[in-house]
Amino acid sequence: MRLFAPAAAPALDLVDIHGRPIAIHRAGRLTLLSFFRDAACPFCNFRIYELTSEHAALAARGLDIVAVFSASQADVLRFAGHRPRPFPLAADPTSRAHEIYGIERSLWRKLKAIVTRVPTLLKGMRLVGLAGLNTGNLMPADFVIDEHGRIVEAYYGRDAGDRIPLERVQQLLPASRLRKVA
């Protein structure tokens, strides 16, 4: 079942791929909690690349990022975690966290992304190789959570490559932080 703002974000006991506990919300900061498909997903790996590239600017504006993959720790380390990331990556091999947040499955929407997002698919395939062809049917989803653990924005992907636009996330950042950076 989908979650909506301003509901309380369901609690998750997550650890990163190195065994460290992950805090979903911290005082004075927003968290982008991103649910990813398989660790070999080309769309997911391209998004991880984007988040890595934008992390410094987003963090300076008060945003933490947590990425949760429906994959084993070994697969997350092999694909998304093969390079150091400035934010935590978590493995959810049973998809339990995905279920708690109402992440959906759809073969049709997966195929739609493959057909309509060819440039992103190809960029992602350069990152993961042919392993990216063998992914499941989970859809992506993103949640912006405030420091009190409330969902500010819930974004369920319309297809396997659809994510909350980073411009939308920036709009949700506190105005006081925006003035300091500008």
TrEMBL record:
Record domain Thioredoxin: where: 3-174
InterPro entries from the UniProt entry: AhpC/TSA, Thioredoxin-like_sf, Thioredoxin_domain
Signal peptide segment: none
MF term (GO), any: oxidoreductase activity
SUPFAM superfamilies reported in the protein's UniProt record: Thioredoxin-like (SSF52833)
Pfam family, one: AhpC-TSA
The protein's name in its UniProt record: Thioredoxin domain-containing protein
Protein's organism: Rhodanobacter spathiphylli B39
Lineage, uppermost ranks: Bacteria, Pseudomonadati, Pseudomonadota, Gammaproteobacteria, Lysobacterales
